[in-house]
Design a protein that fits this description.
InterPro entries: ATPase_NBD, Carb_kinase_FGGY, Carb_kinase_FGGY_CS, FGGY_C, FGGY_Carb_Kinase, FGGY_N. 37% of the residues lie in helices and 21% in strands. With 513 residues, the protein is an alpha+beta fold. It has a seven-stranded mixed beta sheet with strand order 17-18-16-15-21-22-23. Strands 3-2-1-5-14-13 form a six-stranded mixed beta sheet, sandwiched between helices. Strands 4-7 form a two-stranded antiparallel sheet. The radius of gyration is 22 Å and the shape is globular.
Length: 513
């Protein structure tokens, strides 16, 4: 490990792509990111133009390569999971890239989930039966756009599409495939029953390869566009969730990575694939011997943003600090006020598109500070439910590392540690998934012995320990928080049934200038 070889980690995210060059000592040498829109042409749709994303990937690589003084030993890729694109026989997109945030397949997902084989399908493929996943999306295409469904020669993810353009290889890695609902995670092979449900054949899917699979080089066109030699190796890479664990240094069994940005997730590293008996968690691959078990939540920092817009519009935009100061004035437990933070529906651990947000326990004595604090507590309580599901899957939890925008707030850090009832460690600034991709690439190219070096390369800035009294309060409230979901499911169902006959929701009002 001379610290001289350079690998560029390319992270294809939902709203932007970021390329970061690292040496084998973990030092960041150059970084560039390019954003792109998430299109929502109809309610529930969340799709993107694959060509725009490809252009962003190429542009980011080109910018980083131009900044470097060292040769690039290889590229390695991370990607947002659950995307789906239909290609024709020539590899041209027939559909947009349908993202994880797209919920048009809600009815199909609920039908599949309620079927006798629903839970078995989840446990076999590692992917919850939820509208985020490609399996229900494929059923939606078969039912709603059958002619288009028949015309598609290949169904791929956004990373598969990028690699097809850069290296003329139609492959998908075990990590991305483990998030489709179409691969048997125990056999690392496409699942015949899932393909039958989706109405597709194995020939319509890319070849399955390990995450460390190396493609030998770029096409002449891609080499010109990126400024790299044509023989630059490409490491196929993995999904952004498992790679975020690696980028945080949470690489050993029992080490949990918790990330809270707009949404949130909690994942623990394990050595063998498996899902809990109730299907509360996902199980996605990192390598053949490393898997992550956990759950994602839809509502993280977006809940604080909503609280600012809805409860304190007079503070204007970028009022996070004032909001957090307001929340700090309310007591632990918000005076018995509980918020279910399901503003954008929810994923783990219930994996249903039905729920909506709710405040329960509101009294005449509650003020805005209680409502804002209850919103923060609701996000952390939801993460506590995910952690309970991770443990229910038979996994030891020894250490929690957390990252994301929320980590800048001392109040939110403390509420998280209190709600989880465990110390939470916050690593020094890092790029998460792109660093994980670079490390995986270094292992694949023989530049480091093992991805285990991540544990030593990631430095911890601060450890926040739970306050015993606050932790006891949250532990007492968690069963109530959990029961509320089940109690309100009939109401959520009725609201959705009534929705078409209700006046449309008013557009959000602009905050005063």
């Amino acid at each position: 490990m001379g610290g001289t070889a350079v690998v560029v980690g390319v992270d294809i995210g939902t709203t932007s792509t970021k390329a970061v060059a690292y040496d084998t000592g973990g030092r960041q040498l150059a970084v560039h990111s390019i954003g792109y829109p998430l299109d929502e042409p109809h309610p529930g749709y969340a799709e993107q133009d694959p060509q725009l994303i490809l252009d962003a990937v190429v542009g980011c690589i080109r910018a980083v390569v131009a900044e470097l003084h060292e040769p690039v030993a290889g590229l390695s890729f991370s990607t947002a999971m659950h995307s789906l694109i239909g290609l024709d026989a020539d590899g041209k997109p027939l559909t947009p890239s349908v993202t994880w945030a797209d919920s048009r397949a809600s009815a199909q997902a609920e039908r599949l989930r309620a079927a006798p084989s629903g839970l078995a399908l989840h446990r076999r493929t590692g992917t919850p039966v939820h509208p985020m996943a490609p399996l229900p999306k494929l059923v939606w295409y078969a039912e709603q756009e059958p002619k288009l469904h028949e015309r598609v020669a290949h169904w791929v993810s956004i990373k598969d599409f990028v690699l097809l353009r850069l290296a003329e290889a139609l492959v998908t890695d075990h990590s991305v495939a483990s998030a489709t609902g179409l691969m048997d995670i125990h056999r690392l092979a496409w699942d015949a029953e899932a393909l039958g449900i989706a109405g597709i054949t194995e020939e319509q899917l890319p070849q399955l390869v390990p995450t460390t699979h190396v493609l030998p080089g770029l096409t002449a066109e891609a080499a010109r566009a990126t400024g790299l030699p044509a023989d630059t190796p490409l490491v196929v890479g993995a999904g952004d969730g498992p790679l975020a664990n690696l980028g945080l240094g949470a690489v050993h069994p029992g080490e949990v990575a918790c990330s809270v940005g707009t949404s949130g997730a909690m994942r623990v590293m394990v050595e063998r694939p498996g899902v809990d008996p109730l299907g509360g968690v996902f199980c996605y691959a990192l390598t053949e011997h490393r898997w992550v078990v956990g759950g994602a939540i839809n509502n993280g920092g977006i809940v604080l943003q909503w609280a600012g817009e809805a409860l304190t519009p007079e503070l204007g935009e970028h009022a996070e600090e004032e909001l957090l100061d307001m929340a700090a004035r309310a007591p632990v437990g918000s005076g018995g006020l509980i918020m279910l933070p399901y503003l954008l529906s929810e994923r783990a651990p219930h994996w249903s598109a039905l729920p909506r947000g709710a405040y329960v326990g509101l009294t005449h004595g509650h003020r805005r500070e209680h409502l804002v604090r209850a919103a923060l507590e609701g996000v952390c309580q939801q993460l506590a439910l995910v952690l309970a599901s991770v443990k229910a899957a038979g996994n030891e939890v020894r250490e929690i590392r957390a990252s994301g925008g929320f980590a800048r707030s001392p109040l939110w850090r403390q509420i998280l540690a209190d709600a989880l009832g465990m110390p939470v460690r916050f690593p020094a600034g890092h790029e998460g998934s792109s660093f994980g991709a670079a490390l995986l690439g270094m292992q694949a190219l023989g530049l480091i012995e093992s991805i285990d070096v991540a544990a030593d390369l990631v430095k911890i800035d601060e450890t926040v320990r739970p306050d015993p009294a606050a932790a006891a309060t949250y532990a007492a409230l968690l069963p109530l928080f959990s029961e509320l979901y089940d109690a309100l499911v009939p109401t959520f169902a009725s609201l959705r049934r009534l929705a078409p006959s209700l006046p449309p929701e008013p557009p959000p009002t602009a905050p005063p200038q």
